[in-house]
Amino acid sequence: MNAQEIIVKPLLSEKSYAGIADKVYTFQVANKANKTEIKYAVEELFGVLVDSVRTAKVHGKMKRMGAHQGMTPSYKKAVVTLKKDSKPIAFFESLS
Q: I want to staple 60 with a disulfide (CB 3.0 to 4.6 A). Which of 7, 23, 71, 79 is the partner?
């Protein structure tokens, strides 16, 4: 897998906004990606130095719209912490 296939999109929530100041960023990643692949993908795409990666599988929720019901999709998310001497990711800096 290449870097664009591993990092699907950034996840933006109140909790992820709180980590931007500490160089902690949250991404939705490919389900089959491991921590090492995620680390190299973030370093390649954004030109930063990654300190650690934590991953979690987020299970879909049951949703109902009138008489119809279904599940939201499940996905894998990664919380990436950058090294202290690394530059921040420019995309997230414009949000804070």
A: 71
The tokens describing 88, both together, are: 């921040």
Distance CA 36, CA 64 (A): 38
Cα separation, 63 vs 12, whole angstroms: 21
Helix (H, G, I), strand (E, B) or coil at 4: helix
In tens digits, what is the pLDDT along the chain, a chain of 96 residues? Answer: 899 999 999 999 999 999 999 999 999 999 999 999 999 999 999 999 999 999 999 999 999 999 999 999 999 999 999 999 999 998 888 876
What secondary structure letter does DSSP report for 86?
S
